[in-house]
Amino acid sequence: MPRNRKGHGTLKSLIWNPTPDSSPLPKPVAEFARFVNEQARHYTEQFSDNEKKFIPFPVLREYWTRARIHQVQRCCSPPFSLNIDSIREKYLRTFSTLVYCNYVTSIGEFTSYNLNDDRLPLESRPEQWPRAPGHDHLFDAVSEHQWLFFPLIFTDLEDRCLNARYVLPILAVSNIPHGRDEVIIRKITIHDSCNLLLPQVFTVLYYILHNKTLFIDLRSLSFD
């Protein structure tokens, strides 16, 4: 059941201030931030020149032991209540986002409304949240940092309009020689944890006319 709405307007006073002039981060939060920054260097989108970073789910799963989640819970003042098993099973990427942007005590704003990993990343402010400055700040923080923990999951080859902030978890790109000047064919490799397609290697075809990309065709092919 959703929590009582009383006091929601003062949400900002219940969470750590993420601004540069705030007091030092709690140790478990600072340790996770360092871990993410170190790991992100190994996972960079190779499909474009924007060098977007992402953290694969297995990396988060290995890091967030029950003990580490409990440490985050205890470092709050006062400590807040959460179901560790539920966090690990349904909210691990959401929890990671909140810890990273220093809003972890707001986890209840997600668990109370079943805003789990399957319903993120958030592209608009949840309608369930009350109109209050504290929730506005929470949404701003989450919408900025969530993409690091929610890279695109490739599940089908249907047309889809993507938010420009999505990270494409493409680890390698190579050109495939062919005899047509109007088409660029590249073979791409997706991180295993984000690839539900078979086979796991497929091609991207760029159709080009007068140096302008007309459209991109993603095709699953077999390479032996």
Indicate the low-confidence ranges by residue numbers. 1-21, 205-217, 219-224
SS element count, helices: 7
Number of strands: 4
Q: Biggest β-sheet: count, sense, barrel?
A: 4 strands, antiparallel
Helix/strand/pairing category: alpha+beta
**Average pLDDT for all residues:** 76
Radius of gyration: 20 Å
Task: Please state the overall shape, judged from the principal axes of the Cα atoms.
Answer: elongated
Topology as a string of helices (H) and strands (E): HHHHHHHEEEE
Helix content: 25-40%
Strand percentage, roughly? 5-15%
Order of neighbouring strands in the sheet with most strands? 1-2-3-4
| End-to-end gap | 53 Å
Report on the structure:
The chain is 29% helix and 14% strand. By secondary structure, it is α+β, with helices and mostly antiparallel strands. Strands 1-2-3-4 form a 4-stranded antiparallel β-sheet, with no helix packed on it. The protein is elongated and about 65 Å long. Residues 1-21, 205-217 and 219-224 have low confidence and may be disordered.
Q: Short description, anyone?
A:
The chain is α+β, with helices and mostly antiparallel strands. Helices cover 29% and strands 14% of the residues. Residues 1-21, 205-217 and 219-224 have low confidence and may be disordered.
